[in-house]
Amino acid sequence: MNFRNLAILFMLTTSLSSAQMFEIGGFVGGSNYIGDVGSSWYINPNSLAVGGVFKWNVSERYAYRASVTASQLRASDKDADTYGRFKRGLNFSNNVIEGALGMEFNFWEFDLGPFSRSVTPYIYGGGAVLWYENLYYDELNFQNGNNGDKSALVDKNKITFAIPMALGVKAKINTRFVLGAEVGVRYTFTDNLDGSYPSDDTKVRFGNVLSDDWYVFSGITLTYTFGKESCYSCF
């Protein structure tokens, strides 16, 4: 590599580092599950979801993002909008923790500098690891319920992967804080968040085995910005 190439690489690296602005904060909102038990509404928060988020803004349009979110996914056939599910009467709750990495893309330029007023819609995508409880229904529990309760039982904890996709809007509320609101769906690589397809095939299985489960996080983020001031187009 000659001197000219080294100089170009140095200038690009310096330009990138001068544009760094970091964000750290929290997420609070609701969660809901989409699958073989309960309501078929796609966005229907029914349980608290909380977490933390970290962002590295590499330009006015892009930001790398890492997050950890915890919630209890739950659903009941008593809330279903179809007669078959309502009559079946199953229910479950599943404690989950999601760790995700991805990228935000801002539709408009979003400058975190202290003298700008910025607001923009954005989309987010990436990959996630999901810790969840492997649920099941035994035969008595599934058919008649134990003392009238048709709740899923917990077998063990498991890990799977998920694909998060979100749409949101964010705005600076002062020189250091950014407030955002988003709805994010997650496609998972398991069909057993609800206990419908346990790993042990001696237990009860039901529902659509060709479709894996989904879940949704809807809520707000509040982040604090720090690091070098944005200088995406300095002269």
Automatic annotation (TrEMBL):
Boundaries of every DUF6089 domain copy: 7-233
Keywords, in A-Z order: Signal
InterPro entries assigned: DUF6089, OMP/PagP_B-barrel
Signal peptide from the UniProt entry: 1-19
UniProt protein name: DUF6089 domain-containing protein
